[in-house]
Amino acid sequence: MLFTRRRQLKRVGLRSLQACLLIFFVIFVVLPLIFRYSVTLQRGILFLTFIKYPKGLDLTKPESVGLYATRNFYITVKDHDQDEDGVRVGVWHVLPSNAVRRFKRELRVEEEVDHDLDQHLETALGNEQELKELAPAIRSEFPAVVPENEQLFYERLLRMPGGTVVLYLHGNTASRGSGHRSEVYKLLRKLNYHVFSFDYRGYGDSDPVPPTEEGIVRDAMMVFEYIANTTSNPVVVWGHSLGTGVATHLCAKLASLRERAPRGVILESPFTNIRDEIRLHPFAKLFRHLPWFDFTISRPMYTNRLRFESDIHIQEFHQPIMIIHAEDDVVVPFLLGYRLYRIALDRRSRSWGPVEFHRFGASLKYGHKYLCRAPELPGLIQKFVENYRNAVY
User: Global pTM?
Assistant: First the structure.
């Protein structure tokens, strides 16, 4: 009887071992191999377009996230000359605070503006003199802003001399209306900048086309061209997380424009390239030490042109750069942002625009998304923009 019991225990132990080996084989061999040969899975993991929040958000109504005096519209992006239909991307144009205050009656946002004033929300000075001089003519042209003249009104203010435009390129997941992004727009609005934010293909209410690196950079290019064709005011590109890869790639493509190119680039929580980011991402913790990690995970994404090589693109444009990164960022480790800064310092020409790096201590707990809450950030942004908004490198 004792012998029989021992034999049963051996069988149970053997089955448990077999089950563990099978689980190990599936998780650490089969899944990486599936990832290697599935471009769809690679794009899904990188872009995370299936993660949508907040639920029920109507992107045609920016006021639902506190962005009154904001125009929602759409731009059609054609990937090539023979592309008849193109890809439609959703865009927000957030007016600067000084313009909103000046035209609050025409915009019908008097209550919202007065509420912000009651909250003692301070704003920068901006192009107040130009606004004061041109306000009577604009009021006579637009006694009220209605859907029929909304585009003309917003573009008229965008062309007003002395303004600054920020083109915001968001990271993966969600849409242009998610909470932390709206906080950034409101911060930039208070600094009296026009803010443009949009959803790449596959995100938000943009066309549900599977994104690629070339595709979303093309989307950013078309939004930039819309801005540049509407106003001669300086444009600063701001990228966050995955958007920093879009920002550097975009600026590399625009490098030959010189005077018409962006005047500065702000990179929030950047990385060097996707290969480095994947290896250090928390989701890769179980897999990064596998001997076949590069073969099954990193190299296939590179082969399929999912690279976002900021460490290369940052050497291809002349504009000044400001990098900001939190030490407690677990999504894009601080190490990668600092490494990109060192690459920019060492490999860019000394005659090009300067490169700044600002670290935010782990004790402040800003993490990956909330550097916009740092009290010193508005001052850093203003100083960077004012130093370089009229400079051409």
Answer: 0.94
